[in-house]
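Thread: quick sanity check before group meeting

JM: Hey all, I'm pulling together slides for Thursday and realized we never actually wrote out the predicted structure for the chain we discussed last week. Dropping the sequence here so it's in one place. If anyone has concerns about the input, flag it before I start.
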Amino acid sequence: MKQSLRIFLVGLTAGAVLLPMAASSHHSAAMFDSEKELVMTGTVSKFDYLNPHSWLYVDIKNEDGSVTSWGFELEAPPRLRRIGVGPKNWVAGDLITVKTNPLRDGRPAGNLVGAIKQDGSTFGEAKDLTAPTE
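JM (edit): ok, ran it. Output follows.
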């Protein structure tokens, strides 16, 4: 009985120490280039409002006429709800201009810094963005 209690307490202590370290390491933004900001306009294809991070997907038209689907990471729904962002904030077909810190490795994704929709509604740091017209 004493051995079982000892094992339980050691496990409980280890969990209490290791869990906060694992949680804080999950939220690293090192993959994003915070020194670089891109501004792009495109059409929302999907908004995944889910844990641990929500994702906004936007189809961006390239100079050659081809389209690249970009993904933009946002906070989890509980944090987004606190600032008034819900699952219907962006719907497929919305025209949007986004500001992002892109991934360092060059893949078409980034951390969403700010956005403005065609109707003028904004998210994040969007004061220097112009509503898209197309």
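AS: nice. The chain has a mean pLDDT of 87. The beta strands are 38-48, 55-61, 67-73, 95-102, 109-117, 122-124.
JM: adding both to the slides.
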